[in-house]
Amino acid sequence: MPALAKYMLRRLAQLLPVALIIVLCSYMLLRMAPGDMVDVMAGESGSATPEYMAQLREQFDLNAPGYVLFGRYLNNLAHLDLGYSFRNNMQVAELIAQRVPATLTLMLVAVVIAAVLGISLGAVSARYRGRWLDEVISTLSTIGFATPVFWVGLLLIVVFSINLRWLPSAGMQTIGGVDGFWPSLLDRLRYMALPALSLSFFYLSIYVRMTRSAMLEVYGLDYVRTARAKGISELCIAVRHVLRNALLPLVTITGLQLGSLMGGSIVVETVFSWPGLGRLAFDAVFQRDINLLLGIFLCSSFLVILMNLLVDLLYAMLDPRIEIRS
Amino acid sequence: MSTPLLDVRHLRVEFGSPKAPLIAVNDLSLQVNAGETLAIVGESGCGKSVTALALTRLLHGSQARISGSVKYRGEEISTLDERQMRGIRGRHIGMIFQDPMSALNPVMSVGDQLIEAIQAHDKLSRVQARARAQELLEKVRIPEPQKRLDDYPHRFSGGMRQRVVIALALAGRPSLLIADEPTTALDVTIQAQILGLLATLQKEMGMGLILITHDLGVVAETADRVMVMYAGRKVEEQPVHGLFAAPRHPYTQGLIAARPALQINPTARRVRLREIPGMVPMLSQLPEGCAFAARCERASDACHQQPDAVRIDTLTSVACHHPWQAIDHPLLQPQRAHA
């Protein structure tokens, strides 16, 4: 078997224990939270009697001790069944499958915006170190670094949706949809703009700062002097020699940040009513929909682990010194 | 006399604030002719490397202030702008650096780095440039050059990497090569190979070579003329045979005396290595006058004033108030007809 396939297989096998630990921890945390699904439903109806609540608990099979329920859940998992969300009256797997594309698109667009803008600004900043342009970029990135995501989102809504009325503030597309491929794509992009921007803001700042410091470090290295001694242009030096080497730590950071990006998307999806996994999780917490929440945790941790695997492969592609061995 | 290949006059390099500058190179003049090897010798921190970098203005980002005149083939290059200077680097003056382990970009294949250097100065297609890159690797005696083109630097040993660095420096077919301690990071057998290679290439291409080193053995083997630097200044300049036979400056004397001698008879009493007492003064605390005076056994009151370089003959000069005369040199009989 080629080394790459072997390596992937081994990495994927590591998923299992990780998934088990994640499920166990989140299950215990959720059980420790006060109230269950029935409490929430009773509160919402406003007129539930204790008898009715007991009957509901019986119906949803919530009376068994925790370890029995957990064992049952694991058994279902082993049969690739994520369980049923009584609140949404749907299979958890189906619910998640509906929401995953929205979240993935949002995350992907945010990462691309953050990486492209962040790396370019960071490179410019490093190139003009100490001049006014560097000062402006560095100051802005510090502000971006220190600003909470939800606040950026609210601010964008106030400016671009309410005051300027340029962009919609909630949802994923015009209700009912738009005819034609290009108009519909444009429509989606318009809805995507504000959430993606606010989600990318924080990461953009990280990229700017990381790129700047990594490039400055590389600028001081011997091979940059060698490149200069060849008589090639500063732009070639910056792009081919400095940036390419500075990208390596950035790829690592991207991998590490993917988990937190998932968390950030929950906030953004809530602010912008984006119908993604994050919103679903947010609602599930308030509805004490344990099955759904566990399913989401599992799914998102799988996503993060898979993306980390991708990042590692990318790393091996970028740096010839790293070879994949199984 | 014809115009020298490189003619440097009163080169001065300062770092730090203009009010309290650190003068790394002071009033340095040197000439190199085509096909000639000039060795610049001195302890670490004496300004050798700074001189090398200052000539092609590669002291990037350190905010060094460089003054003086640098003439290449009679044309002033110290006043060129950055873009014009790029046309000089690599094409006319090639550079080889000390540490081959860090002098190559780790994420670019050796071939790509060579092609980049070739295309910087010659309008060649990629295929043509690749063919030239292969020739260059052949020229620096790398076995199986065609296969090695696509390898990354980490697959080369130190000596092989230095060969690649030399190939890079030759890519623009320069007429002057500046080698800044090209063998310091290599082990001794490889050192000899690399020096031999440099000498062969120099002869083949008729290049001028400035060889910066602190290794007097290297100097004796390869140089035509030697310039000794101390604390940023030239203290002595001589043809190589004269320097070893009759060093004029007390510092040069000390350097030569401090070389370990090979002891043939292992049972003989070990001879203690001669050393120069004291330390090189820090740039921020240079004394008035001769910087070597504090370590010099011949120092007198006169040494509180900077000695001028005195020409002894066309090729020899020394900056000392009390230079050794050939006649009072302990190793020499009174003035032989020719050394």
Q: What features would you describe in this structure?
A:
- Chain A: Residues 100-315 form the ABC transmembrane type-1 domain.
- Chain A: Belongs to the binding-protein-dependent transport system permease family.
- Chain A: Keywords: Cell membrane, Membrane, Transmembrane, Transmembrane helix, Transport.
- The complex is a heterodimer of chains A (326) and B (339).
- By secondary structure, chain A is an all-alpha fold.
- Chain A has helices at residues 3-13, 15-32, 37-45, 50-60, 66-78, 92-127, 132-146, 149-163, 181-219, 222-230, 234-271, 277-286, 290-318, and strands spanning 84-85, 90-91.
- Chain A has a domain at 100-276: MetI-like (MetI-like fold, Orthogonal Bundle).
- Helices cover 78% and strands 1% of the residues of chain A.
- Chain A has a two-stranded antiparallel ribbon.
- The relative contact order of chain A is 0.14.
- By secondary structure, chain B is an alpha/beta fold.
- Chain B has helices spanning 48-55, 82-88, 110-121, 126-139, 145-148, 158-170, 188-205, 216-222, 240-245, 250-257; strands spanning 6-15, 22-32, 37-41, 65-72, 75-76, 93-96, 176-180, 208-213, 225-230, 233-239, 310-313, 316-318.
- In chain B, strand 11 and strand 12 (316-318) form a beta hairpin.
- The A-B interface holds A 219-223, 225-234, 236, 240-241, 244-245, 248, 318-321 and B 56, 58, 60-61, 82, 86-91, 94-95, 97, 99, 102-109, 116-117, 120-121, 152, 154, 165, 168-169, 171-172.
Structure summarized in a few sentences:
The complex is a heterodimer of chains A (326) and B (339). By secondary structure, chain A is mostly helical.
- Could you tell me the CATH topology label of the domain at 6-223 in chain B: Rossmann fold
Low-confidence stretches of chain A: none
Largest sheet properties of chain A: 2 strands, antiparallel
Please count the helical segments of chain A: 13
* CA-based shape of chain B: globular
What is the straight-line distance between the termini of chain B? 23 Å
Strand share of the residues of chain A? under 5%
Quaternary structure annotation: heterodimer
Mean pLDDT of chain A: 85
- What's the helix count of chain B? 10
How large, in whole angstroms, is the Cα Rg of chain B?
21 Å
Main structural class of chain A: mainly alpha
- CATH architecture descriptor text of the domain at 6-223 in chain B: 3-Layer(aba) Sandwich
Percent of residues in helices of chain B comes to 25-40%
Average pLDDT of chain B works out at: 86
Major β-sheet profile of chain B = 8 strands, mixed
Low-confidence stretches of chain B: 332-339
CATH homologous superfamily (4th level) name of the domain at 6-223 in chain B: P-loop containing nucleotide triphosphate hydrolases
Transmembrane segments (chain A): 12-30, 104-124, 136-162, 189-208, 247-272, 292-318
Family (chain A): Belongs to the binding-protein-dependent transport system permease family.
Subcellular location (chain A): Cell membrane
Main location (chain A): membrane
